[in-house]
Amino acid sequence: MRPYCKLSVFVLTLVGHQLCTADDAKARDKALAGAEERLKAIYEKREFAPAIFPGKWLADSSGYLMLESATPGAEPEVVKYDAADGKRTVVIGADKLVEPGKKARLFVQRVTQTPVDHKFCLDTRTGQWLFDVKSGELQKLPKEAPQPATAGGFSPQADDIVFRRGRNLAVVEIATGKVTPLTNDDDRGELDNYDTNWSPDGRRIAYVQSDSSKVRRRAVIQPTDPSYPEVRYDRFARVGTPIPSLRVGVVDRKGGDTRWVKLPADPGTFYIQNVSWAGNSKELLIEMQSRSRDHRKFLLANIETGEVATAYEETDPAWVDASYAANAGLEWIRSGKEFVLLSERGGWRQAYLISRDGKRRTLLTKDKSDIIARGPVDEAGGWFYFSASPKNATQRYMYRIKLDGTSEPERVTPADQPGTHTYVFSPDRKWAFHTYSTFDKPPVIDLVRLSDHKSMRVLEANEEVRKRATPLIPKPTEFLQLDIGGGVVMDAWMIKPKDFDEKKKYPLFVFIYGEPHGQTVLDDWAGGQNHSMFHRMIADLGYLVVSMDGRGTPAPKGAAWRRAVYGSLGPLSTEEQAAGVKELGRMRSYVDTSRVGIWGWSGGGSNTLNAMFRKPDVYQVGIAVAPKPRPELYNAWFQEIFMRTPDVNPEGYRKAAAINYAEGLKGDLLIVHGTGETNTHLQITESLVDRLIELGKRFDYMAYPNRDHGLREGKGTAVHLRMLMTRYLLDHLPPGPR
Q1: Percent of the chain whose predicted confidence (pLDDT) is above 90
Q2: Among 120, 123, 610, 709, whose Cα sits 20 to 30 Å from the Cα of 60?
Q3: Residue 44 C-beta-side C-alpha neighbours within 13 Å
């Protein structure tokens, strides 16, 4: 790295290649030492990571369960808090948590309610136990039971547990420990059981079988003997290559032959998004999506007759819906006659009430605005709850609307609490654990009564996090809207240095993601991909740190906004981010557009490369972490949604690939990658490294051994990576005002 000399503590300026003075070097070392201390507080001590509320709603909604110790250091016991008045009751006292026939105490680490109200699964240091509150009986779960056991693994009567054994499914009977194999598919690739589902009567289990035998395998070096490392082979479905073949089956809890649903598509041409029992124990609701996600249909499959009918289907020239979390968990209402579905068929993500036979479709949310994510249905009260923010795409609020479609949406979240709100509803929809935060304020969790949003009590105030963070946030983060023309207005946030002087000019450091998987400009404590405290540290070194969400990001601004990138991820984001930098410089006189850096991770790493290669006159420094410079080598599941395959869209892939524009590099570029990548494989980035070498370009490259996509493995990795980035920034993009 080239040495630079400073003009003040955090101000470095390039003077040819002359060496810095001893005072300059000392000041720089002091700044880096302070940065390292901050980073250790963030990533190792986790001083700014908010606590989450561990309470679990009881099935009868009367209150919630907690694990608490009666005295400091004592064994935890299971207690209940009433929702209405907060009364504390011991459900399973420490005196009852004794292994039968022994004196040894059971130290409970986790409690899960089973489908039966009075039975709880206790995860302890000596195994898992089933506790019956009514009888007081404590029964150890068989060793074959999955660890930890989940509520969904238990049968509705909590007498059996379904689990995965190798590539197969089996059921273990809790009372006897008897194991009944359900499938025998060891020769059929892999079995996915993430959505296994007990029928309501507990007689059957639905599951998805995934046959990956046609999916190509890739060699992965295992870090064993340095001289003779072992090789592991993993299945990887690359763009344009075979994907797993899926089918849906139902098997009796006592074993026997699987009944396969006759799906209306050829194997290997579709994905299955959701499988659930359709309000009874005879029919399944199956959501199928075409390989390119431009077509989806909801099927009703009668297990006893074999009949399969289409309850609903839709298509879109780009994709039907890439936001799977928004529509998760379909819920049947009115005795299984209808369900609520989110669809973007009208240009906005709206809620529809669909009849069981698909003949009636009622639009519930008629406004031209997006639902961000579905909430639950309160059938007794006649409400459908959902998350939305019609006027500010950076925030999140809870709304509800009448199920008969006759009312306007009603905001549940108080109007005087701008920011981000999330809710965990009680089963009867009368109460909720409510979490509220902003970009500058850590989350506060309270229990609210939903009828009037009255706060009954604070459950987690995160006071310690607040006390540590407040001195580091002397000025509110500025949220902006950048009008870059053509009707495009981008949301942005900006963090300023603690000693900011608006009469001077500061360098700009841009944080980018810019792809359909997520937003970075969110008014919540996570700050968009959890980098906010790192960015505050960078700002205090003398930078303006900014992030902008352009078209193609999943902001609640309509389907056209999100689908604007269809055909090629990269070019549009590159143009709009550069336009955003210029507009920011026009709006704010203190932005020094002659000193601009950019960084991003994964898709943001790819966009960083595109920025450095395609807009070399805008950006002087780039840091690309775990990028994918060749999208044609990425996974089919993600890339084909937005770009199809190179066979049908060769020009889109050519324009999206940063490697094809590497000759444009002029500034300073740092590429960071983990050699143990299972997502954006190292070899994809190495092909870019080879290309840059071929072009004679100067760049820097750091490979972290055996780290995966998140670069979390290994002691000290998180801090080391951020220090690497910090030093690179200081050395190549002079900080501080001019």
Answers
A1: 82
A2: 123
A3: 15
CB atoms within 10 A of CB 33: 10
d(CA 122, CA 690): 54
Q: Which residue has the tokens 């709009």?
A: 576
Mean of pLDDT values over 532-553: 97
Kindly report the number of other CB atoms within 10 A of residue 120's CB atom. Answer: 23
What is the DSSP-derived secondary structure letter of residue 323? -
Strand partners of residue 701: 671
Q: What is the DSSP secondary structure assignment for residue 551, as one 8-state letter?
A: B
Domain edges within the chain? 151-211+242-315, 473-725
**For the ranges 121-125, 289-293, 588-592, 628-632, which has the lowest average pLDDT?**
121-125
Which band of pLDDT confidence, cut at 50, 70 and 90, is reported for residue 74?
Answer: confident
User: Which residues have a Cβ under 8 Å from the Cβ of 73 and sit 6 or more positions away?
Assistant: none
Specify the pairing of strand 410-411 against strand 420-425.
Answer: unpaired
Q: Per-residue DSSP letters for 684-712?
A: HHHHHHHHHHHTT---EEEEETT--TT--
* Mean pLDDT over the full length of the chain: 92
Give the range among 136-145, 317-326, 361-370, 382-391 with minimum mean pLDDT: 317-326
Which residues have CB under 8 Å from 233's CB, separation 6+?
Answer: 217, 218, 219, 220
Residue 10 in this model has a pLDDT that exceeds 80: no
HSE on the CB side for 422, CA within 13 Å?
14
**If you count them, how many residues does the chain have?**
738
636 pLDDT higher than 70: yes
CA distance 369 to 710: 34
Asked if residue 348 has pLDDT above 60, the reply is yes
In 542-561, which positions are buried (b, 16+ CB within 10 angstroms) versus exposed (e)?
bbbbbbbbbbbbbbbbbbeb
E strands in 334-430 = 338-343, 350-355, 361-363, 371-378, 383-388, 397-402, 410-411, 420-425
Q: Which CATH superfamily is domain 473-725 in?
A: Alpha/Beta hydrolase fold, catalytic domain (3.40.50.1820)
**Integer CA distances (angstroms), 409 to 136, 366, 388, in order:** 47, 9, 10
Look at residue 324 in the predicted model and tell me its pLDDT: 63
Residue 570 near residue 656 (C-beta atoms within 8 A): yes
pLDDT grade for 525, boundaries at 50, 70 and 90 = very high
Question: pTM value?
Answer: 0.94
CATH code, 151-211+242-315: 2.120.10.30
At 530, list the tokens.
């959890």
